[in-house]
Amino acid sequence: MERLSRFLSFASLSSPPILAPDHTSQTPPGMQLPRTNASALLALPAEIIHQILTLLDPISLADLSQTCHLLHSHAEDGKLWYDIVQEHVPAQRLLSPGLCKTWRDLYAAHHPYWFLTRHKLWFSDKAYTGIAMTGSLIVARFDPRRCCIEAYRLVAEQGDHTFEQWALDPSVIIHAFNPRLRLWLDDPVIKLNLRSAPLGKRLQKEILMPTGNAQGIRSLLFRSLRVAPANQNRSMLLWPPEIIPTPERVRNHSPSLFRSDSQKPKTLADASDTTFRIRKWMEFGSFAVSIGLRMGEDVMTFSTLPEDSYTPTKEKPWRGIWVGDYAGHGCEFLVVLQPDEHAELSNSRSSSQESSFSHAATNMESASGGAISVNENETDEQAEEAPYSGRLEAIKLTGDPNVPRGEYTFIADDIGRKGFIRIAEEQPFLGARVVKSRGHVAARGFINHSYIPSELIMMSHDRLAQYWVEFGHISFYSRVNIDDYLGFNKE
Q1: Do residues 105 and 149 both lie within one domain?
Q2: What is the pLDDT of residues 362-376, one digit of tens each?
């Protein structure tokens, strides 16, 4: 905590750095002290010292700047702090510190919330309107014009809803899908400006944000306390769910709505860098936060994904963030994963999940002779194509009243030889690979959920279609490039 306090006040340092005590004047005549206080680091060329300092994290760099004049001057180098800030602002190239005097001042202005822009993509356990099953997807970015960190909901509209009959089976309806995506700029979810909170009170303090497009809407941002994997158990309500790959999970239920100091991090080491919380309510009466009647208070917990889990590669080209057509439920966002073949499936599924998976397997086995029929004559060239191997999973980041966020929406157990059905010869899927899959369905309230036989039509690396056999319709999914929404050139 002492180390953190030193760092939290480093931006306002005006006094010279503390110097090591001079022992030479206290040395008795004729006695020579060993040169144990001499540092080999100080004797290095300036270029080497600079290179070493590039390896330090911001806190260590600020600590080092308080040791002596020489290291203070090196640690003040604007190039070091520019690189640190730029690292936390992906897909944008910063040209100046804007309203701040130096890059170090800019970094200090938003410490310790730079992780928001570094991870850029966040999904919540509740919708921004408070509905628990649907969730929200937001994009965090840095505005260099105003030097503020902000985040907005990414929303999608289905577009013109037309349909056609499937040439292979005229009883099946194909729903057209041309989604229009945009950020909801009228209602920011996060807004941190240069005066959001005193520098030394940002770890446990909840920061009031100027958000809400209607008078009386209040929101507070605060850090979440990480739960060590060894302390996690099935009785805990954690976010995100186990099926979503993320390095950290936190509690997302608290009778006190996370007001207790014991539920907030005391040090940066305790704070999660991949989750955070927002407290939101409507207030009547005085504008002051501490006065007035609060109504509908709730806390949303947000999490992010490791970028490599949704970044496509040559071997796993379908990884990514996608938007899908869910008919009357509208557009929903999902992450498509292609786990490594040697990776074990999550061993923390609940008994209901295990039962559902078993039920899906039974359904798949019983679907013989129907629309899903495996083509045993797949050529060796088709089977050996590198991208067509392994498992493909689609998990909802936003959901609906039937199948909520954080649940599978469909699974293709093997997009290679074992799951291969055919190569489509009809429009609009000409040339697409078709594989066996399982679609996740449920009654309203996620009741009686189960997996039903379906077909995944792999049209391209940016376009998928799902044939829901029992429902008699085909719906589409399109890839979303999050980096397209980090800049300001489209506004």
Answers
A1: no
A2: 455 444 334 444 454
